[in-house]
Amino acid sequence: MSVTAAMQAGAANPILWILAIPLGAAGFLAVLPGWRLATWLNVAVSGATFLSSLVLFQHRPEPTRLLFIDDFNVYLVALTAFVGFTTSIFSAAYISRESRAKHLSDMHLRFYHAMYQAFLFTMLLALVANNIGVMWVAIEAATLTTVLMVSLYRTREAIEAAWKYFILCSVGIGLALFGTTLVYLAAQPVMGDGADAMAWTLLITKAAGFHPDLLNLAFVFLLVGYGTKVGLAPLHAWLPDAHAEGPTPISAVLSGLLLNVALYALLRFKMLISTNPETLAPGPLMIMMGLSSLFLSGFMLYRRGDIKRLFAYSSIEHMGVITFAFGLGGAVANFAGLMHMTMHSLTKSAIFFAVGIITQNAGTKRIADIRGLTASHPVLGWGFVIAVLAIAGLPPMGVFMSEFLVVTSAFSKQPLLALPLVVGLLLAFGALVSRLQGMAFGPPPPPNRRAHGGGNWLGTMMATVPLWLHMSLVVIAGLWLPAPLVAWFEAVAKLLG
Amino acid sequence: MLQQFSYDLAHLIGATVLMAGFGMLYQRRLFAVLNTFAFQALALAAAAAWQAHVQNAPHLYATAAIALIFKAIAVPIALHWLVERLGIHRTVETALSIGWTMIVGVALVALAIMLVLPVTAKAAALTRESLSIAMSVVLLGMLMMITRRNAVTQVVGFMALENGLILAAVSAKGMPLVVEISIAFSVLVAMTVFGIFFFRIRERFDSLDLHFLETYRGDRQ
Amino acid sequence: MTAVVWQIVQIVLVLATAPLVTGWVRWVKARLNGRRGAPPWQPYRDFYRLLQKEAVVAHSASWIFRAAPYITFASVWLAACIVPTFTTNIFLAPAADLIALVALLAIGRFWTALAGMDVGTAFGGLGASREMMIASLAEPAMLMVTFSLSLVAGTTQPAQIVVFVLGGNVGIEVSLGLALAAMLMVAIAENGRIPIDNPATHLELTMVHEAMVLEYSGRHLAMIEAAQMVRLTLFMALIACLFAPWGMAMPGAGLPGILVGMAAFAAKLFILATALAWFETVIAKMRVFRYSDFLGGALLLGLLATIFLYVSEAV
Question: In principle, which of A287, B216, C133, C229 could form an S-S bond with A327, CB 3.0–4.6 Å?
Answer without folding.
Answer: A287
